[in-house]
């Protein structure tokens, strides 16, 4: 096991590129379900969209160009030993700020995202004039991107948290703060639960919460009972209900039969494209995806070290955590003390909760609301995320000086 982090070069072999092209050449497409009064996206990705992207992926998309752009990032990899699972090789982006007292920030992506989501934040968080600076660490989670995969059962949220925490310690960051959405929410919440003496504050852009309970949060429960929902909260409940009724099918499948959907994702780049592109479309706030962006995101999964099927296992492990003595969803939706919490509410997130629900998650020091933005906040609205972090950790912010000796200035 290596004791030091080493530079990492993303370099997909030529034969893998040729293999992808061959598979795309033999693609078969379904018929399109028609309805005069419904948006074709209501049935999933329109067939003509898939055909267009497959043709471009095969004949026009330049992976080497995308690869070169990603290699301009400060990519590294290192070995991390996980209790009961041996050594994993973890890929990560590590941007060191020139500011001496910069704050160590651990950024955790989710599915179907990757480390690439941090890209637009890096320049903003490095040394913006008048704002706190951050040393940013953005790993590929195990089973994602260019990190090792795990095929043994029981690798749940606690193990993901262990990997990221040990990575921060290995980089010399004994105390740090976190930012996350999607699985980044659950993983960074797990870090706060397991390592509160090291994780001093968390900021999240996907908020998974339930109504406050009288038994655990009586004041918030009373406030929730007595206060009408705001316009944002009413619209948010509609968005959440839409997701539960029309957008949750992928989650049920990946949470219960990951091996089945894994066959399609591992064998067919077309299936992978459709499966991911649907989420990029439905979960964002009319974000103008370019074909190059879409295919870069999907290609990272296709060329991932563990294979495109590995990423969905986290759903099953998290849902069945009780059977392997892992961290459960209920634990992470409950009040986690000692770790200060900042929350950003975006209108096109897949789950949009009232402020009183969110306040029951922990010692909340900041909640902000924004008129635009969806699930992939760092990619869609990086300015919003950066400004929220600056407000939280800046000189007048509630988390200024939360890490002794590191105030960001």
From TrEMBL:
GO annotation terms (biological process): antibiotic biosynthetic process; epoxide metabolic process; monocarboxylic acid biosynthetic process
Organism: Penicillium canariense
Domain Epoxide hydrolase N-terminal: 6-118
Family the entry assigns: Belongs to the peptidase S33 family.
Entries under InterPro entries matching the protein: AB_hydrolase_fold (IPR029058), Epox_hydrolase-like (IPR000639), Epoxide_hydro_N (IPR010497), Epoxide_hydrolase (IPR016292)
Parts of the chain that traverse the membrane: none
Pfam family membership, one: EHN
Alphabetical keyword list: Aromatic hydrocarbons catabolism, Hydrolase
GO molecular function, a single term: epoxide hydrolase activity
Protein name, entry field: Epoxide hydrolase N-terminal domain-containing protein
Superkingdom of source: Eukaryota
Active-site residues (renumbered): 182, 315, 375
